[in-house]
Amino acid sequence: MRIAEAPSGTELIGRASELAPLLRKNALWSEENRRLPEETIQAVIDAGILRMRLPARYGGYESDMRTVVDVIAQLGRGDGSAAWTVSTWAVSSFVVGLFPDEVQDEVFADPDVRVSGILSPTAMAVPAEGGYVVSGRWSFNSGCLQSQWTVNAVLIGQPDGSFEPATAAIPLADLQIVDDWHTAGLRGTGSVSTVAEELFVPADRMLPMIPLLQGRHRSILNAGSRVYQMPLMPAACTMVSAPAVGLAKAAQEAFFERLPGRKITYTDYARQSEAPLTHLQVAEARINADEAEFHAHRAADLLDSKALTGAPWTVEERARVRLDLGAVCLRAKKAVDILNSASGGSSIYSDVAIQRIERDIQAINLHAILHPDTNFELYGRIACGLAPNTQYL
User: Is 0.85 topped by the overall pTM?
Assistant: First the structure.
């Protein structure tokens, strides 16, 4: 039992902001090595950032969602890959808090444990005495190279031939690593594939997915926690939207850092900063970045307010979080696109931050759960009186 007073949201956000220069310095190494450097990970640990989604009884902070979003966004100012990895660790730690308490005791024995996770069930689980035998492959397992545990989704075969989705808590040491993360964006996340071959998973480490999506979990000691009043998908979606907010901020900082002394080649503008076009670009990028942050905050505030009151969630509210998620990604990408386009040919060098930011925000927008069109369609069909076309709501 390691309950301690949690730092305030302001303090955690300040710690994350102070880390941005270090993350920015290490970002090129992360790209080239396709994982985060140990210096970055240790700095995040030392700042207490991995404890935001950890239950208080293990020394966690159980931070409100607005704080989580703003902390991850500050990390994104320095490195999109670092922000994305921390967001997936935060989501996965939250998921562990939904497991039986004895499983949490095992996973959270180290309060700075790193837990990766996959929500898409791309492996099969066969019932066996005392548990399940799991076989299959999970792609895009962000941060798993530097995690101790992972919570990966599976399909459990049923006697009638149907399949039930579930999530399994698995030590990373029990999985095979396939080094296939050769990508254009978010290279530093090390989102390689993991493989299970006839792996036995005890029954208490297997959690049915449908009850989780409906707000029912198996933790007794977390039942009264405000954090665990939050439904899984709205909470997860809000956390993974935060790196996009940070990347929009990073693009502005990167652009203004290079602006002094730059000209617009093949024009009479000896200073890019004096061109009306630049003024319009900067203003449009700023308003898009601000709109991205607005939507991330709106989702976070809805989660925090409903957790305080215990009010039930409507389908429309759940879909609205997905709507906000899509808007965050779309607006952040627009902000980055504008400033990337305004950065000139010299910005394509690998040591210039804006080109990495552009590739990272593109990768985020292509993620299945983040894609703006998918999220907008989902909200629109519900607003028009149709049933949702997904269980991940």
Answer: yes
